[in-house]
Amino acid sequence: MKRPLTLFSLALIFGITISYLTKSYLFIFFSSLTILLILFAIFANEKRENFIIVGTALFYFIGGFNFLYGYNSNINKYIEFDQEYVTIKGYVISNPEIKENRVYYVISTEEIILKGDIRKINGRIRLSTLNDTDFIPYGKEVKIYGRLNIPKGKTNPGAFDYRNYLIQSKISAVVFAKGENIKVKDGYKGNFAVKYGLALRDRIMEVINKSLPPSQASLLNAILLGYKSGLGENIEKMFRGAGLAHVIVVSGMHVGYILLGFIVFFRKLGVKRPFANIITILALWGYALITGFGPSVLRAVIMASMVLAGEIIKREPDVINSISFSAFLILLFNPALLFNVGFQLSFISTISIILFCKNLKELLSMRMLPQYLTDVASLTLSAQLGVLPVTAFYFNEISLVGVVSNVLVAPVIGIITILGLVMAVLGQIHILLSQLTGLCNNTLLSFVLFVSDKTSDLPFAAVRVITPSILFVVIYYIFILYFFWYKPKHKVKLLPKQNIIIWVSLLFIVLIKLFIPKGLEVVFLDVGQGDCAFIRTQEGKTMLIDGGGYINRDDDSNTGDDIVIPFLLDYGITKIDVVAVTHGHADHAQGLKPVLESFKVSNFIIPDVPVLDGLEELLRVAGEVGINVERCKKGDIIYLDKKTYFEVLHPKGGFYIYESPLNNNSLVLKLYYEDVSILFTGDIEKEAEMMLLDDEAPIGADILKVAHHGAATSTTLEFLQRVNPSVAVISVGRNNFGHPSNEVLELLEKEGVLVLRTDMDGAVIVKSKGKKSKISNYRQ
């Protein structure tokens, strides 16, 4: 085989993927044996392939085993300390990461102390603290007191998997501690090379900050060093909208510019190639060190090192082998990086450029474009063709002006990078030399900021898209591989009849998926301490009841942006027929604000009561975007389609409960779908429950959304017996109110009701075709 390394890399990737999906050592072991036997059966008469056969099965097993071992050891390392207040002894192994008013560090732990019991544990945790104290330098020993938390992982469809994100950096847990609970000691530990690499990065940043205005300095720090903390969220958003996000993330492009600078420099000096290549390789690895060994930088540095080393030993470089080798090394060291978005974007864009760039350049050359425009446009388009589904999957956003902005900016980024390196070197001699060089770089950086600002402001510069399905992604890659690589390479000319067959086949597959009857689907989302439920009928009508509240009040982050919207996009939702808010408490209403601002909403339903505290902001947004607002009370009917409707059971017209008024005057809605019924109770307490009982409201239901997160003030025995549910869903998160109460949990158990909790089970998903319901929890 010409490229066995490529096959071994693919086997490694396949093994990691299978172990991620199955989480089973046994499956990996027996599937490895199966692969080995199948390959031997296929190539039984070709003994020269034995090395390839054994290597393929072996690296499949290594990939799977390595991932599972690392994953399980990370998850289990601190499991006994989850949610406990502990004292942690260790040392800092990262520079401070600044976000809004928080600072984050990675701590290498040595001891964990719980109630006097000392355990020696070597691992990593992520420390967050308020940005009100001096930064802690790399390597400093620390003693921390705080509550340790192991992230739950992905608990909602479409949600960001924070636990897996941390595992990519071998971090097992997080802890928050205030400044007074963090003691910095005199001792120093850590990696010598990393320490001086970070120190060098800090010195370079200091030079840049002294040589340029703040905005331009922050941009150069991002371009040259990958340090984005100084940019601010608005600048990052602007670059994403302009299709220039790759500019502010240190990647293969930046490594390429630095490599080019060294090649030109040594050629001008007349340095012999072997010596120049060795110095360049060392410089590139030094650059990888000071930028933090990101996956995209590692990929580019490994590939460049292979090319330069090949020149030294007079070997012709093979770009596919170089890509395979870099992926192989990175994943062998840390298999979890396969699921890192930077790793995926870097490798897919590089492969796309190799496969498509030449053919696109030939296609664009026929349009009589200038050579420069042809080169930049073909490079940009080929990379974007490959990463489009990945970008849509992770960010739900696609830039439509990326080609234009890249054509304008691409010529100057290389000059900015090289001038930035010159500034960094000259600044070590005298800051004035860096400032003089910075006069030119300031102009170029200002130009990049100007282009980003203007292109991101263009109408439809970036469009929000739904999360693509696996079927769509597969069809998409088949399409672009065929039409932009295979067809031009093999000079295939399809007859019109063959074209029709291909398009009809693809259309048939899509139509089957679209028109298979889906029935009713109800999802009780895990929004922490709050409520949120999504309903989609068999005819595709949609409704959202409540939206959760704040995730972190320190930075005003809420569930609407971070949980509800990603979920809706993952479910392919671009329009919502009805949004209902049960009452004005923040844990129900706050998350709806970004939903009303971002989605086309036909109707917004609120309770018909005289006091609307907490809903003022939502009503303002609804008025600004032109959403129809309806006040609902007992007796009103909300029709979604011919088989699905809601009956409003509360509040009662003309009556207002003054005891715990916002809770007790919540909307109570009963969903009907053929033989299936679900009761949504908001946060009503015993006073409202008694009113419903006295009025003999039709509260009987198959599924009960337990009121007020399972508080002891709700779900009385008489009310529960009248509802008589088979399943009870408690929407709850970590809180200081004692929700859900032991009394309610014991009552539900005594009455034989199956209880599902979003804090333990994740999102609760109900599916029905009208007769029975199938209920599942997302964490399982």
UniProtKB/TrEMBL annotation:
Q: State the UniProt keywords alphabetically.
A: Cell membrane, Membrane, Transmembrane, Transmembrane helix
Classify the main location.
membrane
Name any Gene Ontology BP term.
establishment of competence for transformation
**Membrane topology category:** Multi-pass membrane protein
Q: Which InterPro entries match?
A: ComA-like_MBL, ComEC_N, Competence_ComEC/Rec2, Competence_DNA_uptake, DUF4131, Metallo-B-lactamas, RibonucZ/Hydroxyglut_hydro
Q: Which GO terms describe its cellular component?
A: plasma membrane
Key word Membrane present in the record? yes
Q: Which domain of life is it from?
A: Bacteria
Q: Where is the Metallo-beta-lactamase domain?
A: 529-734
Q: Does the keyword Manganese apply?
A: no
Q: Where are the transmembrane segments?
A: 25-44, 51-71, 244-266, 273-290, 325-356, 376-395, 407-426, 432-451, 463-485, 500-516
Q: Where in the cell is it found?
A: Cell membrane
Q: Which PANTHER family match?
A: DNA INTERNALIZATION/COMPETENCE PROTEIN COMEC/REC2, RECOMBINATION PROTEIN 2
Q: Spell out the protein name for this chain.
A: DNA internalization-related competence protein ComEC/Rec2
Q: Which organism is it from?
A: Acetivibrio saccincola
Upper lineage is: Bacteria, Bacillati, Bacillota, Clostridia, Eubacteriales
